[in-house]
Amino acid sequence: MTEAMKIIYVTMQWPCASETFCSRDVLALREMGHAVNVLALKPSPANAGYLLKSQKSDSVPFCATSFWGYIEGILSALIHPSDFLRFIVEVLREEKSFSHKKSLLLLIPTFFWAAKKIIYQNPDIIHLFWGHYPCGVAEIIKYRLGKRKIVLTQFLGAYDLNMSLSLSKKVSKYADAVFTHAEANVQSLLDMSIPENKLHVVHRGIDIQSMDGALFGQFRQQRDPYRLIFVGRLVKEKGVAYILQATKIIKQIYPSINLEIIGDGPEMGRLQSLAKGLNLSDCVSFRGYLPPLEVYHSLYNSSFFVFPSTSGGERLPNSVKEAMYAGVVPIVSRTNGISELVKDGHDGFIFGEISSEAISRLVLQVMREGEWEEISKNARKTIAENFDVNVSMEQYVKIWSVNAS
């Protein structure tokens, strides 16, 4: 058994409704006996208490920046003027994007605040859960620690790569390990001149144990063969409007069809108006943000998970994994790396053309041919064998242990 380690996760916000996978990783590590603290570079949201409880993360020690934390960071920067000026020069000289320069300069006090906390706590591992702006913390720590050694690792996902932050690339050069969650990201990372032996692909896992527990919940019902479901943030690039339009087409053939939309976001009002305009108010429900357990209940009662994302930053979405483990047939767009998760025709279906016609055509085909039950079994098996959060985090721990020894 690996010796218990003291780990600090540096993330942008904690808790966060759209980053539940972070809490799952942290909880899995704590279950293994490791001490994990979280440092967040943005203030906690107004509904932090509710999110922590719903994500079962209320026992996780964390510290989120605040007004007074920002002031503390300013004072720390003034106490270390050479580090302060060095970072400013680095940002102005190396970052090409004006918006990146602006954000990094505004975050300097937060970086100093977080670095001070980390140095005081003296962890075994510092993990930059997001590999973009949290890299500023790594730079300040590097200035402050000198030759003193703390293992530093970095996660670089699709969003980080799309941001193309010069600081991310710089930190990857001296990080002890760089993690990513899809083979589809590897070439981009190699193009950043990251040594191949430092690069580790670890697929992000889901909380299978909690999902199994949901099977015994009081809300467990027989799966509805006419229920479509979507889970995710309601932003334009997720393509929820296409699902609504497809539902209108499907309803003409299967009047019993219904659609459940779980999630919140800036598109909520527009999508609700669209559903009303399509005369779908009687068969579409907008549930908003739900705690994971309630999401699992809804998944187990649904038959088809429709995910027509157009986002270039999409990589093996956790919502698709959870749907598959619940036995919901995934009908997903061809996003980068999706073939690492869904094998078309075996455990789900992938469509190339993103349109309401393409979605409705595929859903109707599966309904008519009646083959979805076998696909459902295969989907669950795929996730059980390859995407368990406990297995994923064991891989992280193994890599951290090698670098710490």
In short:
Strand 4, helix 7 and strand 5 (151-155) form a beta-alpha-beta unit. The protein is elongated.
What does this entry look like structurally?
It is built from 18 helices and 13 strands. The protein is α/β, with parallel strands linked by helices and 405 residues long. It has 2 domains: 217 residues, Glycogen Phosphorylase B (Rossmann fold); 179 residues, Glycogen Phosphorylase B (Rossmann fold, 3-Layer(aba) Sandwich). Helix 13 links the parallel strand 9 and strand 10. The protein is elongated. The model has no long low-confidence stretch (mean pLDDT 93).
Strand order, main sheet: write it out: 3-2-1-4-5-6-7
Report mean pLDDT, rounded to a whole number.
Answer: 93
Find the count of extended strands (DSSP E, 2+ residues): 13
Largest sheet: 7 strands, parallel
Can you tell me the residue ranges where pLDDT is under 50 for at least 5 consecutive residues?
none
* N-end to C-end Cα span: 15 Å
Shape: elongated
CATH class of the largest domain: Alpha Beta
Taking all Cα atoms into account, the compactness measure Rg is 22 Å
CATH superfamily of the largest domain: Glycogen Phosphorylase B
What's the helical proportion of residues? 40-55%
What share of residues are in beta strands? 5-15%
Q: Structural class, please?
A: alpha/beta
What is the count of distinct domains? 2
How many helices does DSSP assign? Answer: 18
CATH-assigned fold name of the largest domain: Rossmann fold
CATH architecture of the largest domain: 3-Layer(aba) Sandwich
